[in-house]
Amino acid sequence: MTDLPQPSDEPGRSIFLVGPMGSGKSAVGKTLARLRGQRFIDSDVEIERRTGVDISYIFEREGEAGFREREREVIDDLTQLPGIVLATGGGAVLLPENRAHLANRGIVVYLEASIAQQVDRTQHGRHRPLLLNTDPEARLTELMVTREPLYREIANLVVSTDRRKVQSVAEYIVVSLAGGLPVDGRGGDLGSLDLPVAAYVGASDSVGSVGDPGETERD
151: domain range? Predict the structure, then answer.
């Protein structure tokens, strides 16, 4: 955790989800938006909507630098919208201006996931250009060395998603922002809280596991 002030969950304030690929930003974001009655937006999906092509194609034609510039424009635009839940790409925190916009325009929630969980959750996914033709575990570890301090730099709230249900993570965030829980949710047993859904998850869980295949976050 950083020394940022406690998040103030004013009505209509936006929530921005940051974290590595496979941490569950898209799945948790959709559920969180539903619980809060807010609009959900995925920055990678918005980039694809504006360009008419998928993220992998942008990386192939323009390289990571070209993609980051497009991402910078989208992050700037989306963080100015009122009352949204925004799921960002894993590398959105790399540019200082993105971090400034996220930190200054809403509540930043860092969804934390272990390397082992990231590997497990991304192995069945497609369209992850940074994991092509490489050892996923080594690459994800390398990415986290650079990105993890940046997630923490701007995070108002840190929540681990390892072995947790989408619904429970979203509910934990809602309660935390209302002042009912500590702002660092890495070590807590969510199942001990007065929440309607138990925290820990098996493969057959009907509510859905954080990081299920099919999520839209790419990088």
Answer: 15-192
Average pLDDT over every residue of 139-162: 94
Q: What is the C-alpha to C-alpha distance for residues 26 and 115, in angstroms, rounded to an integer?
A: 18
**Which pair of tokens denotes residue 125?**
């996914």
Q: What is the pLDDT of residues 51-97, one digit of tens each?
A: 999 988 998 899 999 999 999 999 999 999 999 999 999 999 999 99
What DSSP designation does 131 have?
G
Contacts of 101 (CB under 8 A, 6+ apart): 75, 76, 79
Domain CATH code at residue 188: 3.40.50.300
Whether the Cβ atoms of residue 41 and residue 87 lie closer than 8 Å to each other: yes
Please state whether the predicted TM-score (pTM) of the whole model is above 0.85.
no
CB neighbour class for 212 (10 Å; exposed up to 12, middle 13-18, buried from 19): middle
The count of structural domains within the chain is 1
